[in-house]
Fold:
Amino acid sequence: MKTLPHPANDGARDLRALLADRRMPRRTVRRAELRQLVPLSDTTIYELEQKGEFPRRFYLSPRCVVWDLGEVIDWLDERRRLSDEGEIDRAPDPDVRQRRTRPVR
Structure:
């Protein structure tokens, strides 16, 4: 299976340029391709969609779910920008003093 260009690579910039050209038909991605682009679980993606924080899926047929590739790439670019600016909260470090085995004093 051919993989899609990663957003950090030059191939993704070429893909963005193609997507910006409105004469090109919009490209959609199915779940397998979305997993290559976005390393989040299906549950996390679903929860982000429900909160309006991830591009919404849509149905091409009763069983075929797709996402707009341009929207997904834009979302990744926005997440990178927020991360670079320190606006994304990171998970807190665990309190190692509360471990049951080998607690740190």
